Amino acid sequence: MSLNNNNKTTIADAIAYIPKKPPDKEGGLPKQVGNKTECGLLGFLLDLKRDYQPIRNQIPEEKLYKVYTFNSSRKSMSTVIKLPDGSFRMYSKGASEIVLKKCSHILSDVGEVRVFRPRDKDEMVKKVIEPMACDGLRTICVAYRDFSSDPEPDWEDENSILNDLTAICVVGIEDPVRPEVPDAILKCQQAGITVRMVTGDNINTARAIAIKCGIIHPGEDFICIDGKEFNRRIRNEKGEVEQERIDKVWPKLRVLARSSPTDKHTLVKGIIDSTLGDQRQVVAVTGDGTNDGPALKKADVGFAMGIAGTDVAKEASDIILTDDNFSSIVKAVMWGRNVYDSISKFLQFQLTVNVVAVIVAFTGACITQDSPLKAVQMLWVNLIMDTFASLALATEPPTESLLKRKPYGRNKPLISSTMTKNILGHGVFQLIIIFTLLFAGEKIFDIDSGRNAPLHSPPSEHYTIIFNTFVMMQLFNEINARKIHGERNVFDGIFRNPIFCTIVFGTFAAQIKCNGFTLSDQRGLQAVGVGLFPNLCLVNHDCWPNCTVILNHGNQSALSSALHSQRRIELRAVGKISEGEELTVSYVDFLSLSADRQKNLRESFHFECTCQHCSEKISDDLMTATAEKDGSKPSADKVKEIIALSKEYLEKIDIARVDRDYHKL
């Protein structure tokens, strides 16, 4: 049935006075801001082919005679305008069943005003309001009332003003559920979070929306009640709220419709103060209105809407949702649980390292009079187990698996029983390995024991193996520490965290580097490297009878350039080298240095040798054979001969090193 023009005009006049934001730029589309219900009513006028802007231009917003803003207790808002003849007209919009009760007349389909009988009201509720509400529509009743100017009404007396209305129409507005909301609610339920809807909508509307969202499902034994029934159940004969009564309601309550801000605060307080269960419930509340402030403040976590929320709601909340999206709460839950798990992962790793390091250092010092882990080594261990490990384990990105378990209890210990088993298990395993190497390592690897070394003696190969083993066990235990709930696959998702991978591989490379290429002045050699000769080091001085040379094998061009160079490589020993001692040597292009630099090396580092080759400045055989004479280079056959001789002696050096018999050289 179509509306006649008189009714359309009346509807347009009643709805038009709603704030609207102008276009952002010339020619742009107008943007409706504010309450979504009011925006929906303005859209309804456009569907009726009625432009509300000319109506607003006649009486601008600042010239409205009286405005009764929306109040959650009366569930309506009203606007009073002054007509040209001096009389007044008030337009009201609000919850359909509440506004209808205040109507004594109704506008017929032909635009005539007739008496609105109680029987007609009941029929409208059953045939119009309830069917729309069951479809999830928010029903709004639009009404008006005329006042004479003489005498002028007492506008402060709301009870008398907001009565004797004339109903114009009932509008059904759909507030569609966002596509991502049902999935977000399902994730919350899987995560052990109960979602309850507290709304001012009609009970039928609220139930229909709750079913669409997945808060309730057909056939489930959950409670959906309105505010009136809720207060009847939780209050005694004196009207006082009793905790025992609330405890009988809230566990199964899923939808609370036609509720007031007081009902919302009462429910939040009742759940928090509940005596059911061993642990107190953790309550999070969402809200956008000023009246939601007390409930947001009372809750453990308050979420305010960043777009539609009022300043009061934002001030009372703990977290502001900038996109007004429920799915953002799911992300907040994921990140919150991820932070907790990251702390637990770091503690699991940290305690294992500390327990093992302290026991090894203390026990080793008591038995061998010297700790197997030196001070500098402990500093390195401290660096990788504190700074690097915290970065690696604290940067794990949150995953959906965090939402597939119940939340931690309020009084749950930070170190769980599973973590305790991991700490003790890894600790015992590492101690067994370390003590086995400490007391039997020399037999296992056929090396000299480091336990009998004098105090403050140079690092031994024995203790170096212990240090490397200790660090490597911590490095791989860092991977194990990623799992704290007993998961089997510790490598699951490891490549989703590039920081973790970088730290693990970087620490691994640094550990190899600092142990594989060392230079110690406590082992009989003061080696100074100034301009390293890149690929080859040949030593045939009499002052190096027992030196093992570590070669950095290069390509043929580098070898050729070395053999044809006229620069001389000189190495000097500070003191006597013990027979059979294996050294890693660095080398210096000594003769290419300035005179001042040579003098400084001699004085500061005792860079001198008294053998015949050095004191009489006899050139090395190899360098002499390959040097240019009178501008001519040696023949190709001569170079091949020298290269063959060099390789022969290098093979002897390698054999002597393997056999540990340096007298052959």
From TrEMBL:
EC supergroup of this enzyme: translocase
Family membership: Belongs to the cation transport ATPase (P-type) (TC 3.A.3) family. Type IIB subfamily.
Membrane topology according to the record: Multi-pass membrane protein
GO cellular component terms, semicolon-separated: postsynaptic density membrane
The encoding gene: LOC104966466
Domain SET: 413-588
GO terms classed as biological process: methylation; regulation of cytosolic calcium ion concentration
EC number assigned by the record: 7.2.2.10
Catalytic activity of the protein: Ca(2+)(in) + ATP + H2O = Ca(2+)(out) + ADP + phosphate + H(+); L-lysyl(4)-[histone H3] + 3 S-adenosyl-L-methionine = N(6),N(6),N(6)-trimethyl-L-lysyl(4)-[histone H3] + 3 S-adenosyl-L-homocysteine + 3 H(+)
Highest taxon of the lineage: Eukaryota
Pfam family, one: Cation_ATPase_C
Localization of this protein: Membrane
Functional description taken from the UniProt entry: Catalyzes the hydrolysis of ATP coupled with the transport of calcium.
Protein name: Calcium-transporting ATPase
